[in-house]
């Protein structure tokens, strides 16, 4: 099984392209929109957020090799593009989609 992990393309669905990268992007957008549209469901899952994040971190880091991490930090432009996309562009896109689907939501007062 370790022989499969020597190629860096096996570690990231975004590098492979195709259906894997689309599934990652789609699941991120759907989960954000679902959290905005159904906040009470998200609130009921709130006590388990640390368990979910810990599990995701474990699953993501279990196949991480230090050489791949070093090679990622040697290309800071790629890292910055993905960081900006994830932290700025994706939430803005989800906000626009949510405001189109449920226009009253941005104007609701927080409880």
Task: Give me the secondary-structure topology.
Elements: H1 13-16, H2 19-37, H3 39-45, H4 49-61, H5 66-73, H6 76-101
Helix pairs in contact: 2-3, 2-6
Q: What's the rounded overall pLDDT mean?
A: 77
How many separate domains make up the residues? Answer: 1
What is the chain-wise order of helices and strands? Answer: HHHHHH
- How far apart are the termini? 50 Å
Rounded Rg: 17 Å
What does this structure look like?
The structure is a single chain. Helices cover 69% and strands 0% of the residues. The longest helix is centred in the last third of the chain and has 26 residues, at 76-101. 0% of the residues are buried. The chain has one domain (2-107). Helix 2 (19-37) packs across helix 3 (39-45). It is mainly α. Residues 1-6 have low confidence and may be disordered. The protein is built from six helices and no strands.
Question: Keywords for this structure?
Answer:
111 residues; mainly alpha; globular; disordered N terminus
Provide a quick synopsis of the model.
With 111 residues, the protein is mostly helical. It has helices spanning 13-16, 19-37, 39-45, 49-61, 66-73, 76-101.
């Amino acid at each position: 099984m370790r022989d499969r992990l020597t190629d860096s393309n096996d570690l990231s669905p975004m590098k492979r392209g195709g259906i894997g990268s689309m599934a990652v992007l789609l699941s991120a957008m759907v989960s954000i929109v679902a959290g905005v549209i159904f906040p009470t469901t998200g609130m009921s899952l709130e006590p388990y957020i640390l368990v979910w994040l810990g599990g995701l971190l474990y699953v993501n880091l279990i196949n991480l090799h230090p050489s791949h991490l070093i090679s990622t930090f040697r290309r800071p432009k790629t890292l910055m593009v993905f960081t900006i996309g994830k932290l700025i562009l994706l939430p803005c896109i989800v906000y626009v989609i949510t405001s189109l689907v449920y226009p009253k939501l941005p104007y609701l007062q927080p409880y």
